[in-house]
Design brief:
about 80 residues; 3 strands
Length: about 80
Amino acid sequence: MAKFLGLIRLSGPEATRMLRDGPLARRDFIELIVREGGGTVQDLWLTNVGDWDLVCVVDMTDGTAATGAAATLARRAAGLTGAER
């Protein structure tokens, strides 16, 4: 397994969801997407400085799996799937 660093900026609707549901719900959501891509979240931190809202380290089988998980996170965060979160 390879380690990847995820730098995540929440959209306005995602930030609202995190305030409503709590940060653990957003962690669970990210873990679900990474797990669907065949990986695991090693660590995840909330940050309130700089350009990023969340920073995570994930273990993925390879770069293709990591790219797929990142694309899925971006699509779902933008609300393009209609999936309930």
